[in-house]
């Protein structure tokens, strides 16, 4: 059975792919600042995910800042974000529930200490991605691109189209 956090990570994977595909359609000649902004946001997202992966594994953090001066090309960002999403989902699927609630101590980039459960870290990454995909959506708007519908409700109904039909269930579904 898929846990709620696993389903949310599947949503993140789906939404990230839609955003990456849309960003790839931005014309870099006519909209250089919009594609640069989208790349910077994606770079930040994946760097944060790579740092939290190290925290989840108890290994050395690969970055000392949440962004970098040199921003990778979209192709590299897509590969890294896809790999991160795959890893996060496998981690959630293979980690026992009692381990998911265990707390991890770490230090944020600003030097402040933090403590979160593994499940809270995964939820943070789902939520963090949502925030930055929204910012990228604005760049897509400015570039005249098609902003993909990437909300959780769209995902749920795309994955489970039978949820669109309430016939026969109106007495059990609060409206």
From TrEMBL:
Coiled coil ranges (UniProt) are none
Determine the domain of life of the protein's source. Answer: Bacteria
Pfam families, A to Z = DinB
Write the record's keywords in alphabetical order, separated by commas: Metal-binding
Query: Where does the chain bind a divalent metal cation?
Result: 44, 128, 132
Q: Name one GO molecular function term.
A: metal ion binding
The protein's matches in InterPro entries, at most eight in alphabetical order, are given as: DinB, DinB/YfiT-like
The Swiss-Prot or TrEMBL record describes its family as follows:
Belongs to the DinB family.
Specify the protein name.
Putative damage-inducible protein DinB
Instruction: Please tell me the species this chain comes from.
Output: Pseudoduganella violacea
């Amino acid at each position: 059975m898929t846990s709620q956090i696993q389903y949310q990570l599947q949503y993140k994977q789906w939404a990230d792919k839609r955003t990456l595909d849309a960003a790839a359609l931005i014309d870099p000649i006519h909209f250089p600042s919009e594609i640069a902004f989208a790349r910077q946001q994606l770079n930040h997202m994946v760097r944060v995910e790579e740092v939290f992966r190290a925290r989840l594994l108890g290994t050395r953090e690969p970055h000392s800042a949440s962004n970098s001066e040199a921003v990778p090309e979209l192709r590299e960002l897509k590969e890294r974000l896809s790999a991160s999403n795959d890893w996060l989902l496998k981690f959630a699927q293979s980690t026992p529930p009692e381990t998911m609630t265990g707390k991890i101590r770490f230090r944020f980039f600003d030097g402040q200490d933090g403590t979160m459960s593994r499940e809270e870290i995964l939820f943070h990454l789902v939520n963090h991605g949502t925030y930055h995909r929204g910012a990228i959506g604005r760049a897509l708007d400015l570039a005249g691109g098609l902003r993909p519908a990437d909300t959780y409700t769209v995902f749920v109904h795309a994955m489970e189209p039978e949820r669109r039909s309430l016939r026969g269930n109106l007495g059990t579904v609060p409206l």
